[in-house]
Protein backbone atom coordinates (compact mmCIF):
# COMPACT_ATOMS: atom_id res chain seq x y z
CA UNK A 1 0.00 0.00 0.00
CA UNK A 2 2.86 2.35 0.87
CA UNK A 3 4.51 1.63 -2.45
CA UNK A 4 1.27 2.35 -4.30
CA UNK A 5 0.81 5.66 -2.49
CA UNK A 6 4.41 6.65 -3.21
CA UNK A 7 3.88 5.83 -6.88
CA UNK A 8 0.69 7.94 -6.98
CA UNK A 9 2.49 10.87 -5.35
CA UNK A 10 5.32 10.60 -7.86
CA UNK A 11 2.78 10.63 -10.69
CA UNK A 12 1.13 13.73 -9.21
CA UNK A 13 4.49 15.53 -9.25
CA UNK A 14 5.42 14.48 -12.78
CA UNK A 15 5.19 17.37 -15.22
CA UNK A 16 3.07 17.08 -18.32
CA UNK A 17 2.91 19.17 -21.48
CA UNK A 18 0.43 21.52 -19.83
CA UNK A 19 2.87 22.29 -17.00
CA UNK A 20 5.66 23.22 -19.39
CA UNK A 21 3.24 25.26 -21.49
CA UNK A 22 2.08 27.10 -18.34
CA UNK A 23 5.69 28.19 -17.83
CA UNK A 24 5.31 30.33 -20.94
CA UNK A 25 2.46 32.36 -19.40
CA UNK A 26 0.01 31.69 -22.26
CA UNK A 27 -2.37 34.51 -21.26
CA UNK A 28 0.41 37.06 -21.45
CA UNK A 29 1.67 35.42 -24.63
CA UNK A 30 -1.77 35.84 -26.24
CA UNK A 31 -1.56 39.61 -25.67
CA UNK A 32 1.95 39.65 -27.13
CA UNK A 33 0.80 37.74 -30.21
CA UNK A 34 -2.30 39.86 -30.78
CA UNK A 35 -0.63 43.26 -30.47
CA UNK A 36 2.38 42.15 -32.53
CA UNK A 37 0.05 40.85 -35.24
CA UNK A 38 -1.85 44.13 -35.33
CA UNK A 39 1.43 46.05 -35.56
CA UNK A 40 2.41 43.91 -38.52
CA UNK A 41 -0.95 44.09 -40.32
CA UNK A 42 -1.53 47.84 -40.00
CA UNK A 43 1.94 48.71 -41.31
CA UNK A 44 2.02 50.35 -44.75
CA UNK A 45 4.22 47.60 -46.18
CA UNK A 46 2.88 44.17 -47.05
CA UNK A 47 4.57 41.02 -45.72
CA UNK A 48 4.68 37.61 -47.36
CA UNK A 49 2.27 35.31 -45.44
CA UNK A 50 4.99 32.76 -44.67
CA UNK A 51 7.29 35.42 -43.22
CA UNK A 52 4.38 36.95 -41.30
CA UNK A 53 3.33 33.64 -39.72
CA UNK A 54 6.92 32.68 -38.90
CA UNK A 55 7.64 36.09 -37.38
CA UNK A 56 4.55 36.04 -35.15
CA UNK A 57 5.47 32.52 -34.05
CA UNK A 58 8.99 33.58 -33.06
CA UNK A 59 7.67 36.67 -31.27
CA UNK A 60 5.31 34.38 -29.33
CA UNK A 61 8.19 32.07 -28.45
CA UNK A 62 10.20 35.04 -27.24
CA UNK A 63 7.28 36.16 -25.08
CA UNK A 64 6.96 32.65 -23.66
CA UNK A 65 10.69 32.51 -22.95
CA UNK A 66 10.37 35.71 -20.92
CA UNK A 67 7.56 34.11 -18.92
CA UNK A 68 9.64 31.04 -18.14
CA UNK A 69 12.58 33.13 -16.96
CA UNK A 70 10.23 35.28 -14.89
CA UNK A 71 8.88 32.17 -13.16
CA UNK A 72 12.42 30.90 -12.58
CA UNK A 73 13.50 34.09 -10.83
CA UNK A 74 10.22 34.67 -8.96
CA UNK A 75 9.79 31.11 -7.72
CA UNK A 76 10.31 32.19 -4.10
CA UNK A 77 7.56 34.81 -4.10
CA UNK A 78 5.26 32.72 -6.29
CA UNK A 79 5.16 30.19 -3.45
CA UNK A 80 3.88 32.90 -1.10
CA UNK A 81 1.12 34.38 -3.26
CA UNK A 82 -2.26 32.69 -3.58
CA UNK A 83 -2.56 33.94 -7.16
CA UNK A 84 0.64 32.14 -8.20
CA UNK A 85 0.91 29.14 -5.87
CA UNK A 86 -0.43 26.77 -8.52
CA UNK A 87 2.21 27.64 -11.08
CA UNK A 88 4.46 24.75 -12.22
CA UNK A 89 7.46 25.57 -9.99
CA UNK A 90 5.62 26.18 -6.68
CA UNK A 91 3.69 22.92 -7.18
CA UNK A 92 6.90 21.02 -7.81
CA UNK A 93 5.94 19.97 -11.32
CA UNK A 94 8.88 21.80 -12.89
CA UNK A 95 12.22 22.60 -11.26
CA UNK A 96 13.77 26.06 -11.25
CA UNK A 97 16.69 24.70 -13.29
CA UNK A 98 14.35 23.35 -15.96
CA UNK A 99 12.53 26.68 -16.20
CA UNK A 100 15.83 28.55 -16.57
CA UNK A 101 17.09 26.18 -19.28
CA UNK A 102 13.83 26.37 -21.21
CA UNK A 103 13.73 30.16 -20.96
CA UNK A 104 17.31 30.63 -22.18
CA UNK A 105 16.97 28.11 -25.01
CA UNK A 106 13.71 29.60 -26.28
CA UNK A 107 15.06 33.16 -26.01
CA UNK A 108 18.08 32.40 -28.18
CA UNK A 109 16.00 30.45 -30.68
CA UNK A 110 13.34 33.15 -30.96
CA UNK A 111 15.79 36.00 -31.53
CA UNK A 112 17.97 34.11 -34.02
CA UNK A 113 15.01 32.82 -36.01
CA UNK A 114 13.31 36.23 -36.09
CA UNK A 115 16.57 37.73 -37.34
CA UNK A 116 16.65 35.20 -40.18
CA UNK A 117 12.97 35.73 -40.99
CA UNK A 118 12.53 39.48 -40.59
CA UNK A 119 15.89 41.18 -40.12
CA UNK A 120 17.97 42.90 -37.51
CA UNK A 121 15.54 45.59 -36.32
CA UNK A 122 12.74 43.19 -35.39
CA UNK A 123 15.18 40.71 -33.82
CA UNK A 124 16.95 43.47 -31.89
CA UNK A 125 13.66 44.77 -30.50
CA UNK A 126 12.66 41.24 -29.46
CA UNK A 127 16.02 40.67 -27.74
CA UNK A 128 15.72 43.99 -25.90
CA UNK A 129 12.14 43.15 -24.87
CA UNK A 130 13.23 39.85 -23.34
CA UNK A 131 16.16 41.53 -21.58
CA UNK A 132 13.95 44.35 -20.30
CA UNK A 133 11.27 42.03 -18.91
CA UNK A 134 13.64 39.54 -17.31
CA UNK A 135 16.51 41.71 -16.09
CA UNK A 136 15.17 45.26 -15.74
CA UNK A 137 11.68 44.40 -14.52
CA UNK A 138 11.79 40.92 -12.93
CA UNK A 139 15.26 40.93 -11.39
CA UNK A 140 15.54 44.61 -10.52
CA UNK A 141 12.45 46.83 -10.48
CA UNK A 142 9.83 44.39 -9.21
CA UNK A 143 11.36 44.08 -5.73
CA UNK A 144 12.87 47.56 -5.59
CA UNK A 145 10.26 50.22 -6.30
CA UNK A 146 6.47 50.74 -6.28
CA UNK A 147 6.92 52.11 -9.81
CA UNK A 148 7.87 48.59 -10.91
CA UNK A 149 4.85 48.04 -13.11
CA UNK A 150 5.05 51.54 -14.64
CA UNK A 151 8.61 51.20 -15.94
CA UNK A 152 8.41 47.44 -16.36
CA UNK A 153 5.25 47.83 -18.43
CA UNK A 154 7.46 48.83 -21.35
CA UNK A 155 8.27 45.16 -21.88
CA UNK A 156 4.65 44.36 -22.70
CA UNK A 157 4.36 47.43 -24.92
CA UNK A 158 7.10 46.51 -27.41
CA UNK A 159 5.30 43.72 -29.41
CA UNK A 160 3.37 46.05 -31.78
CA UNK A 161 6.65 47.85 -32.49
CA UNK A 162 8.24 44.49 -33.26
CA UNK A 163 5.37 43.59 -35.61
CA UNK A 164 5.71 46.96 -37.35
CA UNK A 165 9.47 46.41 -37.68
CA UNK A 166 8.85 43.00 -39.26
CA UNK A 167 6.90 44.75 -42.03
CA UNK A 168 8.86 47.96 -42.45
CA UNK A 169 12.29 47.22 -41.02
CA UNK A 170 12.09 50.33 -38.87
CA UNK A 171 10.30 52.46 -36.28
CA UNK A 172 7.78 55.23 -36.89
CA UNK A 173 5.44 57.59 -35.05
CA UNK A 174 2.63 55.06 -35.47
CA UNK A 175 4.58 52.22 -33.89
CA UNK A 176 5.80 54.44 -31.05
CA UNK A 177 2.21 55.48 -30.28
CA UNK A 178 1.07 51.84 -30.30
CA UNK A 179 3.85 51.23 -27.79
CA UNK A 180 2.64 54.24 -25.76
CA UNK A 181 -0.95 52.96 -25.82
CA UNK A 182 -0.02 49.68 -24.14
CA UNK A 183 2.54 51.39 -21.89
CA UNK A 184 0.01 53.89 -20.51
CA UNK A 185 -2.67 51.18 -20.23
CA UNK A 186 -0.54 48.87 -18.07
CA UNK A 187 -0.56 50.81 -14.75
CA UNK A 188 -4.35 51.26 -14.43
CA UNK A 189 -4.89 47.71 -15.63
CA UNK A 190 -2.43 46.14 -13.22
CA UNK A 191 -3.09 48.42 -10.24
CA UNK A 192 -6.81 47.64 -10.40
CA UNK A 193 -5.82 43.98 -10.00
CA UNK A 194 -3.40 44.85 -7.21
CA UNK A 195 -6.18 46.61 -5.30
CA UNK A 196 -8.03 43.37 -4.67
CA UNK A 197 -4.97 41.13 -4.23
CA UNK A 198 -3.04 43.57 -2.03
CA UNK A 199 -2.42 40.98 0.69
CA UNK A 200 -0.69 38.70 -1.80
CA UNK A 201 1.96 41.31 -2.53
CA UNK A 202 2.30 42.25 1.14
CA UNK A 203 2.85 38.61 2.12
CA UNK A 204 5.50 38.24 -0.58
CA UNK A 205 7.19 41.54 0.37
CA UNK A 206 6.75 42.94 -3.14
CA UNK A 207 6.66 46.78 -3.00
CA UNK A 208 3.54 47.19 -5.10
CA UNK A 209 2.02 50.68 -4.90
CA UNK A 210 -0.95 49.33 -2.95
CA UNK A 211 1.45 48.03 -0.29
CA UNK A 212 3.85 50.98 -0.04
CA UNK A 213 1.42 53.89 -0.47
CA UNK A 214 -1.98 52.36 0.23
CA UNK A 215 -5.16 51.92 -1.76
CA UNK A 216 -6.21 55.58 -1.83
CA UNK A 217 -2.93 56.68 -3.42
CA UNK A 218 -3.24 53.82 -5.91
CA UNK A 219 -6.74 54.94 -6.86
CA UNK A 220 -5.46 58.46 -7.58
CA UNK A 221 -2.66 57.06 -9.73
CA UNK A 222 -5.14 54.92 -11.66
CA UNK A 223 -7.12 58.04 -12.58
CA UNK A 224 -3.97 59.96 -13.56
CA UNK A 225 -2.77 57.22 -15.91
CA UNK A 226 -6.28 56.74 -17.28
CA UNK A 227 -6.35 60.41 -18.32
CA UNK A 228 -2.89 60.10 -19.88
CA UNK A 229 -4.03 56.97 -21.68
CA UNK A 230 -6.98 58.85 -23.18
CA UNK A 231 -4.61 61.44 -24.67
CA UNK A 232 -2.33 58.77 -26.15
CA UNK A 233 -5.20 56.75 -27.62
CA UNK A 234 -6.69 59.81 -29.34
CA UNK A 235 -3.26 60.82 -30.68
CA UNK A 236 -2.88 57.36 -32.21
CA UNK A 237 -6.21 57.81 -33.96
CA UNK A 238 -4.91 60.94 -35.68
CA UNK A 239 -2.04 59.10 -37.38
CA UNK A 240 -2.08 57.30 -40.72
CA UNK A 241 -3.35 54.06 -39.11
CA UNK A 242 -6.28 55.76 -37.39
CA UNK A 243 -9.64 56.80 -38.78
CA UNK A 244 -13.29 57.44 -37.90
CA UNK A 245 -14.01 53.88 -36.75
CA UNK A 246 -11.04 53.88 -34.41
CA UNK A 247 -11.89 57.35 -33.10
CA UNK A 248 -15.48 56.36 -32.36
CA UNK A 249 -14.24 53.32 -30.45
CA UNK A 250 -11.63 55.25 -28.50
CA UNK A 251 -14.04 58.04 -27.49
CA UNK A 252 -16.60 55.55 -26.11
CA UNK A 253 -14.00 53.40 -24.37
CA UNK A 254 -12.19 56.35 -22.83
CA UNK A 255 -15.43 57.77 -21.44
CA UNK A 256 -16.20 54.38 -19.88
CA UNK A 257 -12.64 54.00 -18.60
CA UNK A 258 -12.55 57.46 -17.04
CA UNK A 259 -15.96 56.85 -15.48
CA UNK A 260 -14.64 53.57 -14.03
CA UNK A 261 -11.50 55.25 -12.68
CA UNK A 262 -13.60 57.96 -11.03
CA UNK A 263 -15.79 55.26 -9.52
CA UNK A 264 -12.73 53.61 -8.01
CA UNK A 265 -11.41 56.96 -6.80
CA UNK A 266 -14.63 57.61 -4.90
CA UNK A 267 -14.06 54.42 -2.95
CA UNK A 268 -12.02 54.52 0.23
CA UNK A 269 -10.63 52.08 2.75
CA UNK A 270 -13.62 52.93 4.93
CA UNK A 271 -15.98 51.35 2.39
CA UNK A 272 -16.87 47.71 2.66
CA UNK A 273 -14.25 45.47 1.06
CA UNK A 274 -16.90 43.67 -1.00
CA UNK A 275 -18.16 46.92 -2.58
CA UNK A 276 -14.65 48.16 -3.32
CA UNK A 277 -13.58 44.88 -4.86
CA UNK A 278 -16.69 44.81 -7.04
CA UNK A 279 -15.77 48.18 -8.60
CA UNK A 280 -12.11 47.22 -8.95
CA UNK A 281 -12.87 43.89 -10.60
CA UNK A 282 -15.29 45.58 -13.01
CA UNK A 283 -12.61 48.11 -13.95
CA UNK A 284 -10.04 45.33 -14.39
CA UNK A 285 -12.37 43.46 -16.78
CA UNK A 286 -13.09 46.69 -18.67
CA UNK A 287 -9.34 47.27 -19.03
CA UNK A 288 -8.99 43.94 -20.85
CA UNK A 289 -11.73 44.91 -23.30
CA UNK A 290 -10.24 48.40 -23.64
CA UNK A 291 -6.93 47.23 -25.09
CA UNK A 292 -8.40 44.44 -27.21
CA UNK A 293 -11.00 46.73 -28.79
CA UNK A 294 -8.47 49.48 -29.52
CA UNK A 295 -6.20 47.12 -31.41
CA UNK A 296 -9.23 45.51 -33.02
CA UNK A 297 -10.34 48.94 -34.25
CA UNK A 298 -6.91 49.47 -35.81
CA UNK A 299 -7.39 46.21 -37.70
CA UNK A 300 -10.79 47.33 -38.91
CA UNK A 301 -9.29 50.60 -40.15
CA UNK A 302 -6.53 48.72 -41.98
CA UNK A 303 -9.11 46.46 -43.63
CA UNK A 304 -11.28 49.39 -44.70
CA UNK A 305 -8.26 51.21 -46.14
CA UNK A 306 -7.30 48.09 -48.08
CA UNK A 307 -10.68 48.32 -49.79
CA UNK A 308 -10.41 52.08 -50.23
CA UNK A 309 -13.11 52.82 -47.64
CA UNK A 310 -11.26 53.97 -44.52
CA UNK A 311 -8.90 56.63 -43.32
CA UNK A 312 -9.23 60.33 -42.86
UniProtKB/TrEMBL annotation:
Broad class of the protein's primary localization: membrane
Keyword Lipid metabolism in annotation: no
Catalyzed reaction equations: heme b + (2E,6E)-farnesyl diphosphate + H2O = Fe(II)-heme o + diphosphate
Annotated PROSITE patterns: UBIA (PS00943)
UniProt-listed Pfam families: UbiA
UniProt xrefs under InterPro entries: Protohaem_IX_farnesylTrfase, UbiA_prenyltransferase, UbiA_prenylTrfase_CS, UbiA_sf
Lineage of the organism: Bacteria, Pseudomonadati, Pseudomonadota, Alphaproteobacteria, Rhodobacterales
Additional record remark: Carbon 2 of the heme B porphyrin ring is defined according to the Fischer nomenclature.
Protein name: Protoheme IX farnesyltransferase
Amino acid sequence: MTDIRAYEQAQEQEAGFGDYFALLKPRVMSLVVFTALVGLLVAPVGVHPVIAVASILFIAVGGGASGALNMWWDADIDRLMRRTQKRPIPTGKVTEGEAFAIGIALSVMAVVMLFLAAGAMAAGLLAFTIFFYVVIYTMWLKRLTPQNIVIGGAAGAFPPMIGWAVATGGISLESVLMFALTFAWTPPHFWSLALFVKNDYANAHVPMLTVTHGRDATRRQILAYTLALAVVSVALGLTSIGGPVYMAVTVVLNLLFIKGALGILRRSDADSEADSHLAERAFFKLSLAYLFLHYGALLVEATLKHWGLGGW
